[in-house]
């Protein structure tokens, strides 16, 4: 499990074996239920228990604005700022040759298909400000340039080398409002 | 000054605590007793990097998972814990999320026998010389270098793949150019600042009036983007990025002749000392405290004339940690505590 070192794993295992109540069973059921019911939204990649996620199906949101992020979890901090009321697209990662991740491992084809079909007026690239984030942004810019859309990227007041997850709300809000044209 | 230093599971030491004096501190012992390791611990504490190894993994004592160093410098307490998975730094007992405050406290210049590689070795040694200094002067130096290296390694990985994909390679052009241009600029300015200091240091210690000149030899022209464009065919053939700061170098000339080809070993050693003295003098032009000087196995090996010259021209305000196998060479006037190393024990005299 990510984020759990050998020490913690040992303690958790011990607790599972020795716990008096039925908490471990509760957790096991919750995990199974989550695995069954929560899945990535087929359109944007965010989490959903329905056919399509709450953001994609929300008709009060602008349908001509798309914000592209690396991970589904990047959508959460952006939603907290309330600065953005459009749609999202999560790539599921970024192009990173050192980790053997190429464009075909990401939801890039799906992004292009959406841009073709959904008639966005603006596509905002909100990827991390580090080397891989920059490279992936460049890759997408080349790919999306032929379409009649306005391409922007969020302003990078973001901490250098940091992803969206590590940015605080205010920084993110400013980054979103000060986006630059590509 | 560095008032004290504690190490735990650092190289050959399980646990060790030392208190230093201002000025000279001597570490005496046979080879393999851990003298260089003590200097390394001081360097790792102040700079979070080693003067002798590129990575910190090899510093962890055999059979252990982590090391720790701590100490007091300019009345601030520094602490660094390292394991391959996690690094923790604390500044005045407060854990830090950024390196900035921590790294502001101490600067280091390291003198070692291997410095002659700066003149006769490959260009990598000279880039490391610049990088070690740059990271201590400009807080943006290290992040820029890291980003450049990451872009370079990514790009090279793409060029090495069985079917290079031009679109992906091109996506890494911009970060390579951006961080590369910034790094070039930083290195250019560094060499410009070092050049007169190195020439003066060389005059001071060579005593023969020979002129030392150093010049930056950039791995790309001022039109880096065009260089990269023009190198496409070559990089596809060689399967690596062939222009850029990873090809930077410093040209070193004595009396107008390339020092690696024409200088004698003695002349080369003098040049190496001058380059290091120049490094320590650069700090004296900044507003920071004088650097800690680590002088490893040098005094015992230099001839008396060069040794005296060096002693006279090291910044007198600097604290100095000096290693040697014996103290026989010591001249009058060079006073300081002597730490004798034997069987992992350190006895102060
Ligand atoms: N990671 C390590 N763990 C344990 N011992 C080490 C480690 N790295 C080096 N050593 C040993 O530490 C000893 C001291 O090395 P060093 O500090 O270079 O000695 P000196 O400078 O006195 O010659 C050497 O015997 C070396 O084998
Ligand atoms: Mg040694
Ligand atoms: Zn959705």
Descriptive tags:
heterodimer, A: 182 residues, alpha/beta, Dna Topoisomerase Vi A Subunit, Chain: A, domain 2, 7 strands, B: 349 residues, 6-stranded antiparallel sheet, 6-stranded mixed sheet, 41% helix, globular, binds adenosine-5'-diphosphate, binds magnesium ion
Give structural notes.
Chain A is α/β, with parallel strands linked by helices. Chain A has two domains: 6-37; 47-181, Dna Topoisomerase Vi A Subunit, Chain: A, domain 2 (3-Layer(aba) Sandwich). Chain A is 40% helix and 13% strand. Chain A has seven helices and seven strands. In chain A, strands 4-3-5-6-7 form a five-stranded mixed beta sheet, with helices on one face. In chain A, helix 4 packs across helix 7. Chain A is globular and about 60 Å long. In chain A, 30% of the residues are buried. By secondary structure, chain B is of the alpha/beta class. Chain B has two domains: 1-107 and 288-349, P-loop containing nucleotide triphosphate hydrolases (Rossmann fold); 122-286, Glutathione S-transferase Yfyf (Class Pi), Chain A, domain 2, CATH 1.20.1050. Chain B has helices spanning 35-47, 100-103, 117-120, 123-137, 141-160, 166-171, 173-206, 224-230, 232-238, 259-262, 265-284, 304-313; strands at 2-10, 13-19, 24-28, 67-73, 76-83, 86-91, 94-95, 108-112, 212-217, 249-254, 257-258, 292-296, 320-324, 338-342, 345-348. In chain B, the strands form three sheets. Chain B has a six-stranded antiparallel beta sheet with strand order 2-1-4-5-6-7, covered by helices on one side. A six-stranded mixed beta sheet of chain B has the order 8-12-13-3-14-15, sandwiched between helices. In chain B, strand 14 (338-342) and strand 15 (345-348) form a beta hairpin. The model of chain B has no long low-confidence stretch (mean pLDDT 94). Chain A binds chain B through residues 5, 95-98, 102-103, 130-132, 134-136, 138-139, 142, 160-161, and chain B through 85, 143, 147, 150-151, 153-155, 157-158, 161, 165, 167-168, 170-175, 178-179. Zinc ion is lined by residues 41, 43-44, 46, 52-53, 55-56 of chain A.
